[in-house]
Amino acid sequence: MTIIDYIKRAFYKPCWKLAYRECNKENSINLINGSNKIEFNTLNTEGNNWCADPFIVRQFDKIYVFCECFINEKNKGAIAAGEYNNGELNNMKIIIEQN
User: Fold this and answer.
1) In this prediction, what percent of the chain has a pLDDT beyond 90?
2) With helix as H, strand as E and coil as C, how does the chain read?
3) Taking 70 as the threshold, does the pLDDT of residue 86 lie above it?
4) Could you count the other beta carbons within 10 Å of the beta carbon of residue 65?
5) C-alpha radius of gyration, the chain, whole number
6) CB 79 within 8 A of CB 92
7) Could you give the CA distance from residue 3 to residue 94 in angstroms, rounded to a whole number?
8) How far apart (Å, rounded) are the C-alpha atoms in residues 48 and 73?
9) Cα three-residue angle 69-22-71, rounded to 5 degrees
10) Which of 20, 21, 22, 69 has the most CB atoms around it within 10 Å of its CB?
11) In whole angstroms, what is the distance from residue 55 CA to residue 52 CA?
12) Residue 51 Rama label (left phi>0; alpha psi -120 to 50; beta)
């Protein structure tokens, strides 16, 4: 490891964001092959934590987002979930946290 690597580690803290783009059945295949350029939007998460690897679940008329959540103050990861509504992620809570 070089001195630059040590400096980066000392001052850089990773921060992931959740991003989404809405589509329907007609344009979803275009998103996969890259012919449709719909922009991504980012979701703000509460607190000083960062989240990654979202998994979306729709139940009836609600959309839930499950994701990995890194809890900075505990220096560990957990699984969190919140409700997606009108471009916002609400009521985000840690649902699985282990030693």
Assistant:
1) 25
2) CCHHHHHHHHHCCCCCCEEECCCCHHHHHHHHHCCCCCCCEEECCCCCCEEEEEEEEEECCEEEEEEEEEECCCCEEEEEEEEEECCEEEEEEEEECCC
3) yes
4) 21
5) 17
6) no
7) 37
8) 8
9) 5
10) 69
11) 9
12) beta
Residues 69 and 51: beta-carbon distance below 8 Å: yes
Percent of the chain with pLDDT over 70: 73
Residue in this structure with the two tokens 């040590």, named with its chain if needed: 6
The predicted pLDDT at position 12 comes to: 66
Q: Residue 82: beta bridge partners?
A: 65
- Cα separation, 45 vs 77, in Å, equals 15
Asked if residues 75 and 50 have their Cβ atoms less than 8 Å apart, the reply is no
